[in-house]
Design brief:
The chain is an alpha+beta fold. It has helices at about 10-15, 65-80, 125-145, 195-200, 205-220, 230-240, 245-250, 255-265, 275-285, 300-305, 315-325, 375-380, 405, 410-440; strands spanning about 20, 25-35, 35-45, 50-55, 90-95, 100-105, 150, 160, 165-170, 175, 325-330, 335-340, 345, 350-355, 355-360, 365-370, 370-375, 385, 390-395, 395-400. The strands form six sheets. A six-stranded antiparallel sheet has the order 1-2-3-4-6-5, with helices on both faces. Strands 11-20-14-17 form a four-stranded antiparallel sheet. Helix 3 packs antiparallel against helix 9 (about 275-285).
Length: about 450
């Protein structure tokens, strides 16, 4: 928590006066007003950063029952300040609360939310929807690893930076599984609740957020809600008991695989949904022509990436083309585990673009950037061996896999130069490890 929250009369004065300030925050404009308070676009006059400043209404602090509920929900989100560091989650910067008022400063996202994109007249290109789905999977997987279940995934909480670059906001309803504090129950937006949320008798897991994301994606693909009702009671009953129409019934041009994926996400039983976010992301990626991550990568792009790699500078163009044809290339979204410690593998990997982190037994070993190898020990030992570390993408990445069968067909000079390059990599990493041990 930062400095004490401004008193309500101070807030009122700053809004109506010339300075329009709340503490160090200079108010720029009102972004919206809800049941619990007002959100302003504001300027942090210390850092120069624009923020979304959520200011709670004084009326919420007057009733004992309401006070306890709102304070707990506010404190949930405030406790995450500085913890959520992910490219597709709006950062919670700071928060302050006292007995009469409170505010929370969140990273400002300029492009509005996805509410219009789930309307028939506002549908996005199908490819953008898949990109948004990938990014949500990565962000929610990241939150899940921190013990956080969002519990209110809906279009209004998916903010647009630009294009398909989105950020998830509003963790006030989040279930924090690693906390000692009592958690608020019966939260969420009815149309986007999972069956287990409606029943309120089960421990929620990441599968609840997966169901809610399925409802969002159903709307983004079709412009329709999968569950409706003439009353809230009927709506909730339908969520628990009724299966929605197939997405292609609303939009026949959709790939039939969209039906399979969304209906699995919307399964009534949590254990029948995808076992984890990575499996869902890669299943989405299998619909290749829709996803930026698996769309065709041209040979020219492969050639250019390898040609610009300094350790391969002694290879001529013909030999670089040998490597192009001996490799399999894939785009991988950020926050994806691409290699897992202990799994057996034979492929040598080349990071053509992006950044990855290398972790062993939960400890960060290294951060690799474009032009780096990983998985080199399997190539050196010429056989399937347990991977020595886990590799996870920090950014969207372009990765080339070199498989043993194809590499054996390379010309002698090409194999030699590649082996020398790998040897230098191994030596450099041993030297790096020795230096870290010396300073441990």
């Amino acid at each position: 928590m930062d400095a004490a929250a401004p008193k309500d009369d101070d807030i009122e004065t700053t809004i109506r006066g010339e300075t329009r300030r709340i503490g160090k925050f200079a108010l720029i404009e009102t972004l919206g007003k809800g049941a619990s308070g007002t959100v302003y676009k504001a300027l942090d006059t210390f850092s120069g950063q624009e923020v979304a400043l959520k200011v709670l209404d004084e009326s919420l602090f007057t009733g004992e029952r309401i006070n306890a509920t709102v304070r707990q929900q506010f404190m949930n989100e405030a406790s995450l300040a500085g913890r959520l560091q992910h490219p597709h989650i709006a950062a919670i910067l700071e928060a302050s609360i006292d007995e009469k008022s409170g505010y929370i400063a969140v990273e400002y996202v300029p492009g509005g939310d996805l509410s219009r994109a789930v309307q028939p007249e506002g549908l996005l290109p199908v490819g953008e929807v898949f990109e948004i789905a990938f990014k949500c999977c990565g962000a929610l997987d990241y939150a899940h690893r921190l013990g956080i279940i969002h519990r209110d995934i809906k279009p209004a909480n998916l903010m647009v930076v630009e294009g398909s670059h989105i950020k998830i906001v509003d963790f006030g309803a989040a279930l924090l599984t690693n906390t000692q504090h009592t958690q608020i129950q019966d939260v969420g937006t009815p149309s986007y609740m999972s069956p287990e949320q409606v029943r309120a008798s089960e421990t929620l897991t990441m599968h609840s957020d997966m169901f809610s994301l399925g409802v969002v994606l159903y709307g983004l693909f079709t412009g329709q809600r999968p569950f409706v009702g003439e009353s809230v009671t009927q709506l909730l009953l339908n969520i628990v008991e009724k299966d929605p129409p197939l997405p292609t019934e609303w939009r026949p041009e959709l790939d039939r695989e969209v039906n399979r994926i969304l209906m699995r996400m919307l399964h009534k039983a949590p254990e029948k949904r995808y076992p984890n976010w990575a499996d869902l992301a890669f299943d989405l990626a299998d619909i290749g022509r829709f996803s930026v991550y698996v769309k065709e990568i041209t040979d020219r792009e492969k050639f250019t990436s390898l040609r610009g790699f300094a350790p391969l500078a002694k290879l001529n163009d013909a030999e670089i083309w040998e490597l192009v044809h001996a490799s399999f290339w894939v785009r991988v979204p950020a926050q994806t585990t691409f290699m897992k410690e202990g799994d057996k593998g034979v492929e040598l990997m080349f990071l053509a673009a992006g950044e990855v982190k290398v972790v062993k037994q939960g400890r960060l070993l290294n951060v690799l950037r474009s032009g780096s190898y990983f998985g080199e020990m399997a190539h050196v030992k010429a056989g399937a061996i347990p991977r020595q570390a886990t590799v996870e993408t920090l950014t969207d990445a372009l990765i080339a896999e070199f498989r043993p069968g194809a590499m054996k067909k390379l010309s002698i000079n090409c194999q030699l130069q590649l082996s020398l390059s790998l040897l230098n990599t191994v030596v450099d990493r041993l030297a790096f490890a020795d230096e870290r041990l010396a300073h441990a």
